[in-house]
Amino acid sequence: MFPLLLVLVVSIPLSSGAQIPNQGQAKDLPVATNGEPFPWDRMRLPITISPLHYDLTIHPNLTTLDFTGVVRISLDVQEDTSTVVLHAKQMHISNVVLLAPEGIRPLRVLEYPRFHQLALLSDSVLTKGRKYKVQVEFAANLSDSFHGFYKGSYRTSSGEVRAIASTQFEATFARGAFPCFDEPAFKANFTIRIIREPRHIAISNMPKVKTVELPGGLLEDHFDTTVKMSTYLVAYIVSDFLSVSKTTNHGVKISVYAVPEKIDQTAFALDAAVKLLDFYDDYFDIPYPLPKQDLAAIPDFQSGAMENWGLTTYRETGLLFDPDRSSASDKLGITKVIAHELAHQWFGNLVTMEWWNDLWLNEGFAKFMEFISLDITYPELHVDDFFLGKCFEAMEVDSLTSSHPVSTPVENPTQIQEMFDDVSYDKGACILNMLRDFLGPEAFEIGIIRYLKRYSYQNTVNSHLWESLTDICSSDALDEGRMKHTEFCSKHKLQSGSSKWYSDDELDVRAIMDTWTLQEGFPLVTVEVKGREIRLSQERFLRTDNPSLTEGFLWQIPLTYMTSASNTVHRFLLKTKTDVLYLPEDVDWVKFNVNMSGYYMVHYAGEGWNSIIKLLQYNHTAISGNDRASLIQNVFQLVSVGKVRLDTALELSLYLSKETEIMAVTQGFGELVPLYKLMEKRDMTVLENQMK
């Protein structure tokens, strides 16, 4: 999902493990709406039963703004039980039956609205390994919010208001559209039918197979069965949209849907989607598994966009481009959003986090892939200039006491929704970029392809990704790999004399990355040069008056640095609180965190900042534009926590009169303008003129 507005909040850690019923809880069972005990007392569903397949028929009425439906769910019974617990929210349930080998039997229904749960009670045991189906009829109003199956509308140029019905199920809103096992690990196949009036069309995740005429002049569209996927990725829209289509080089039909009067604004998005889906098809070395990919511009839409498999949905501003009125930044925004949602078709849809605590595996990767894909497919947009800004934004919220780890225990829908923030998206992307820089782009690409292939149509946790990025040249990994993988390992074997592509001690990716995902915040690395010695220390960078809050944090930091003596980028993994590096010769300056590829700040103690200031004044192009932007950001952030004097930061910023790179200039303005405005408000005319 592409967030429109991200708000940082503190999540309350709670147990997140799925459970088996009847484990003898000491506390009383919850009470159902009819006053009977409800047989399940956890927020998470039991693991005794899993869904295999949903047959879902939905009939929305865009006049009365409600819908009816029937769902038949094929079940995999993993433990003997007489209770099926699943989700349903704010709907009327009726005619619930069990389709068993012995025949059809009615099921008793209990509802527990607090957890959005239904319990379907059988008078006989559902036996492990046997095949069963439950069938549930349901009815509800189309949602007034922008979640679940909701009503929308738009106004034509003649003033006519037209209704549409659309879905937004991430994270926990499929349960408001049909009874289901609404957790990401309960993957299943979906066969969907939608009943509509002839004046509308219906689209869903898969292509339409046929349309059947029903009594009363209604039509029923039958859609092909989906691949195995999570409930939050199911989507369907009933509307009067028009579409334009093209086919990718890999044979996938791409269509962009919009309201009729804006269909002429879809050409840019259509071309971008074709180009980007082809890029991902090649990059991930895994064919996009569906025959089509629709992109729909929804007039009423809360998020920036949503990655529903085969039917991605967008705000109109996130998809439509008017050549006569839209700007260059609109073009950048549209390509980034499309790149993000199409990356999700692999990261998130094909391979899905097991639970929402690892949402960053979806969102951090999609955010990261925006920049990887656009750097190659749209180099003229200079998207790498904007990535650095994302890391600065992430640090802004991650330096507060209210931050949370990238991977945070969450349980209830409110906590889950809170995970869609700058930490999951931007910090997630920045630590992946740091890892890619440390491992090398080729090794990183091989590792993530290995991860996607190994866990296709499955669910994962953090450690699965780290394992896939470790030992990429082992015999097991080579068996899973492709030609490019084999060539990479052969080349590095020749260079190093061994099969290890990494020359230091065996690299433990999990040990490194656990320090970045399981604790909040980020490190400040203090560097002091004494002759040929570089003394290093790390601490948490935190905006607080309470120094005790920075204690107890330790990261494994993939340091990079260069010096005045050489253009070579040197690498060192700082695992301890302090360490010392030795230089082969004396140097005038040293710059750590080359290109700001690492998610950490650097403080140059002693004469360190003075040597940096001299470098920028006399030879600023000796380091990259990103390096210069990071020095500006770091020094002003250090001023804000009292580590550096303001006059040092202002002296460093004087070089900006010679600066031509966009990120360094915008970062400089970003730091100086607030100071200037402060002086302006306080009528400090002399200082104001000095600033000018």
UniProtKB/TrEMBL annotation:
Q: Residue limits of the Aminopeptidase N-like N-terminal domain?
A: 51-233
Q: Which Gene3D superfamilies match?
A: 1.10.3480.20, 2.60.40.1910, Neutral Protease Domain 2, tricorn interacting facor f3 domain
Q: Which keywords, in A-to-Z order, does the entry hold?
A: Aminopeptidase, Hydrolase, Metal-binding, Metalloprotease, Protease, Signal, Zinc
| Start and end residues of each ERAP1-like C-terminal domain | 589-683
Task: Provide the Peptidase M1 membrane alanine aminopeptidase domain boundaries.
Answer: 268-472
Query: Residues of the signal sequence?
Result: 1-17
Pfam annotation, one family: ERAP1_C
Highest taxon listed in the record's lineage: Eukaryota
Q: Which cofactor does it need?
A: Zn(2+)
- GO MF annotation: an example: aminopeptidase activity
PANTHER family referenced in this protein's UniProt entry, alphabetically: ENDOPLASMIC RETICULUM AMINOPEPTIDASE 1, PROTEASE M1 ZINC METALLOPROTEASE
- Which family is annotated? Belongs to the peptidase M1 family.
**Protein name, UniProt field:** Endoplasmic reticulum aminopeptidase 1
